[in-house]
Write a structure and sequence with these properties.
heterotrimer, A mainly alpha (334), B mainly alpha (256), C alpha/beta (250), A: 334 residues, mainly alpha, Arp2/3 complex 21 kDa subunit ARPC3, two-stranded antiparallel sheet, 11 helices, 2 strands, globular, B: 256 residues, 2 domains, 10 helices, 74% helix, 3% strand
Chain lengths: 334, 256, 250
């Protein structure tokens, strides 16, 4: 999923750098607060470990092919989201510089697409809630698989988004996303299973190494509800089926169609290009990447995007709900 | 030659190249970083159909490879990783974008222009990044990053990964070799061994990290790897900066 | 008499002490001894006898539980740790854990830079350390290119840069081929500091130490001249060891 520089324009690159830098600043702050300098050599060695582990071929039973591990969820479960995020940044920097895996300009995008989702979304929205009642093999597996699937879907979608926003390709959004998402669904599933196997091993050998596991059985959130929400989330994202049929161009879409239309004709004047990119980048939702949104393909795209938005909002809302409910009422029975 | 060996040798070859680099190696790393980023921004901001403009940008790497005596073959080998997707999208462009356009006196699909431009951008940005890392050691780059206020935690972790990458890759290779000797004919690790194989390696890595931490503590580690080398900006660094920034901007905006 | 540099009184240590439900393993009990400047002491014992634990306690890598330790006149306390650690050099069994920078000079310079020495002073110390172990030819090399023997010498050099008065080594000859092992013996014998070497390799101890402490099940069961203890077959075998090859072949 590493993006090359050629796939984006500077405005998109810059925006993603800003987001990634913000997340990195937060992570550094948190890691410092823990004031446990022990974390740093752990991060270094685990970063190198992830590199090496990425090269191992894992045979997928039943098929003839092999899968690989990316490492975001694995690192998060061992080091916590912030330390894992910084470790992944370091890994991506080295991959970019020494192996040309990902471009320098695209580093901000790659950090966001691969590290941010894997560490923060995977850590706080999936791993921690599932470990809230203690770790078991089943819960570890579920968290690893769901985490990998969801975060890879988000990452792949972001790649499509960033590329389309940069206007790099005339490939219709639907086709691009329609190829990327299912592929990464499969990759996510395999990675999740491998991660689960490794984490289960660690859980048996040295359970204290896992992050975010509540010692006692009292969790803050109903296990079943969490699982239900996450399963739905995985289906929605993975299937990409649209719940929204509307493709009414709203004011924003209209404006962007205009701009997109103009962008096709111009062949020079980078300032113009940059301005239209900024405009595209700062517009809120993905719908506008569609050129000619009255096609059926357009509906699916906006549907996926809409579902995604709904999903993210609902997961965040659940998290907030849980937080406030627990604060209000104390114990929660399963 | 396994993947591990390939990765190890690629990693080490860049390390070696950077350490023996000629005059380019003596240019201040901050200057080189700035010019590299400026170049990447300039290339990526070229219009999608601006094939001519993109081709002009090739002057920068061309000159530096030749005058800087930087090995070109290695740069070309590096293309194989990110190029596939770029190539794929580039090849699709002529089929997706069939608007006819006149270019250099020939009528062609505009998708051909954008496709070629895309692939070319892919090449040029990889070359630009390679020129940086092939002439600048990672330690110098990290010193520069610290000067730019990149947090010490991040920079230290980068240096640690760099140091231990070789060891972990060797260990990965040993683990894989030991496995394949007992599982002949298997292309990958069987599901039943996923957990223990990688898990053992992981636990060993954590133990190594602990020893490392002890070692660092004993020698007064305070959160940062200090470098003894100080880079001063000299006249030639400023000339390099101004010259190349000027040339890049001129190629991008003014050369018609 | 040379100055007393190390004083250990009634030292005891239990792993897992303080953890819930933990009646941990008692690794050391009632350890008492003194060591003077210039002594060459071998610390021997079967696996699990407590050698590594003792060394770690001396550098403060484990917390003091029972007993007292005094290093170069300073009692082992948290506030004295930085000074104690700069007077003691500890060489790990695994050189790769000790050499964590990418290049030899940077690793050697690590400690002096952290302790606030000027760059000039640091470079001087680095040069002296390299000369003391004979690795001047390795200046400028990347660590990953060093052989096992070279790494071991570099690891020793890294601790010499703070001018330690005591050198502790954990299994120094492990994983070295005969040639490197011989060279290591020569280098170690050339170091004037008080040395405590923990090792299974009794022949190595014989070649590098005058005095031997025999540890068994966490206690010192013998403390005396190396040649005497290492010739005592019954004593060694009673404590899980065998005669050094130099003596058993005779």
């Amino acid at each position: 999923m590493h993006m090359a520089d050629a796939l984006i324009v500077p405005a998109v690159a810059g925006t993603m750098y800003v987001f990634s830098a913000a997340a990195a600043a937060h992570s550094v702050h948190r890691v410092r607060l823990e004031s446990d300098q022990k974390k740093i050599p752990e991060m270094g060695v685990m970063g190198a470990f992830v590199f090496a582990a990425q090269m191992i071929n894992f045979s997928i039973p039943g098929t003839g092919s092999s899968g690989h591990i990316c490492g975001g969820m694995l690192l998060t479960a061992l080091l916590g989201p912030q330390a894992a995020f910084l470790t992944m940044i370091a890994v991506l920097v080295i991959q970019c510089l020494f192996f040309a895996d990902g471009g320098l300009l695209a580093l901000g995008c790659n950090i966001w697409n691969m590290a941010f989702y894997g560490c923060f979304v995977g850590g706080y929205l999936i791993w921690k809630p599932l470990m809230a009642k203690g770790a078991t093999k089943k819960r570890i597996t579920l968290a690893a698989v769901l985490g990998s699937i969801i975060t890879l879907q988000l990452g792949a979608f972001s790649v499509v988004l960033e590329t389309k926003l940069s206007g790099i390709t005339q490939l219709p959004f639907a086709v691009f996303a329609g190829t990327m998402q299912p592929i990464h669904l499969a990759i996510g599933l395999v990675e999740g299973l491998i991660t689960a196997a490794v984490l289960c091993f660690v859980h048996e050998a040295r359970p204290e190494m896992l992050w975010g596991v509540e010692k006692q059985g009292e969790g803050k959130f109903s296990f079943r509800t969490t699982v239900a929400i996450l399963l739905i989330a995985a289906l929605v994202i993975g299937g990409g089926l649209s719940l929204f049929a509307s493709s009414h161009p709203d004011g924003l879409e209209w404006a962007l169609e205009k701009v997109a239309g103009t962008a096709e004709l111009e062949a020079e004047g980078s300032a113009y290009q940059t301005a239209s990119d900024i405009q595209e980048a700062t517009a809120v939702l993905p719908d506008y990447a569609v050129e000619g949104s009255d096609s059926p393909a357009g509906t699916t795209i906006s549907g996926v995007a809409g579902s995604l938005a709904v999903l993210v909002v609902s997961v965040l809302a659940c998290w907030a709900f849980r937080f406030f409910r627990h604060r209000g009422s104390g114990q929660k029975r399963a | 030659m396994s993947k591990f060996d390939a990765a190890l040798s690629e990693f080490r070859s860049i390390d070696d190249t950077a350490r023996i680099s000629g005059w380019l190696g003596r240019i201040h790393p901050l200057v080189k970083l700035t010019v590299t980023l400026l170049y990447a921004v300039a290339v990526c901001s070229c219009g999608h159909y601006d094939l001519a403009g993109t081709v002009r940008m090739a002057a920068y790497p061309a000159v530096l490879f030749i005058l800087g005596e930087v090995p070109f073959g290695e740069a070309v080998r590096r293309l194989r990783i990110v190029l596939p997707l770029v190539l794929l999208l580039g090849v699709l462009e002529p089929f997706l974008d069939r608007t006819p356009v006149l270019f250099a006196g020939i009528t062609m699909r505009s998708g051909l222009l954008s496709g070629l431009a895309l692939v070319l951008k892919g090449l040029l940005t990889v070359f630009g990044a390679y020129l940086l890392i092939a002439t600048t050691t990672i330690e110098d780059l990290c010193t520069v990053l610290r000067k730019l206020h990149v947090p010490k935690e991040l920079v230290t972790v980068i240096l640690l990964i760099y140091r231990y990458l070789g060891i972990l890759l060797s260990e990965g290779r040993r683990v894989w070799q030991a496995y394949s000797l007992r599982a002949p004919g298997q292309k990958g690790v069987a599901a039943i061994a996923w957990g223990p194989l990688v898990g053992q390696m992981l636990l060993r890595s954590m133990d190594r990290a602990q020893r490392l931490y002890q070692s660092m503590q004993l020698r007064g580690f305070q959160g940062e790897f200090r470098s003894g080398k100080t880079w001063k900006i000299r006249g030639q660094d400023l000339i390099y900066l101004v010259l190349w920034s000027g040339v890049i901007l001129w190629m991008r905006f003014f050369w018609k | 008499m040379d100055a007393v540099l190390l004083e250990i009184k009634e030292l005891g240590f239990t792993y897992g002490a303080g953890t819930p439900g933990g009646s941990g393993k008692k690794a050391l009990r009632g350890i008492s001894c003194t060591a003077r400047a210039g002594e060459r002491i071998g610390l021997i014992g079967a696996n699990g006898a407590g050698k590594s634990t003792l060394l770690k306690l001396l550098v403060g890598l484990e917390d003091l539980q029972e007993g007292r330790i005094s290093v170069c006149g300073l009692p082992m306390e948290k506030k004295n740790l930085p000074q104690i650690r700069s007077s003691l050099g500890y060489v790990f069994q695994d050189s790769d854990s000790q050499l964590f920078m990418a290049r030899v000079e940077d690793d050697l310079a690590f400690a002096p830079r952290n302790y606030g020495f000027s760059e000039e002073e640091t470079q001087q110390r680095v040069q002296q350390a390299m000369q003391a172990v004979g690795i001047e030819n390795l200046a400028g090399r990347s660590i990953h290119k060093l052989s096992g023997g070279e790494k071991k010498l570099a690891a020793i050099a890294t601790i010499l840069t703070t001018d330690p008065q005591v050198i502790l080594m954990d299994e120094p000859s492990a994983a070295l081929d005969p040639k490197n092992r011989r060279n290591l013996i020569r280098v170690i014998n050339g170091l004037p500091q008080l040395k405590i070497l923990a090792s299974h390799d009794l022949d190595f101890i014989l070649d590098t130490c005058d005095r031997v402490l025999l540890l068994s099940a966490g206690q010192i069961v013998a403390d005396g001249p190396a040649r005497e203890i290492l010739r005592d077959r019954e004593l060694l075998e009673a404590n899980g060891l065998e005669l050094p090859l130099s003596y058993s072949r005779v």
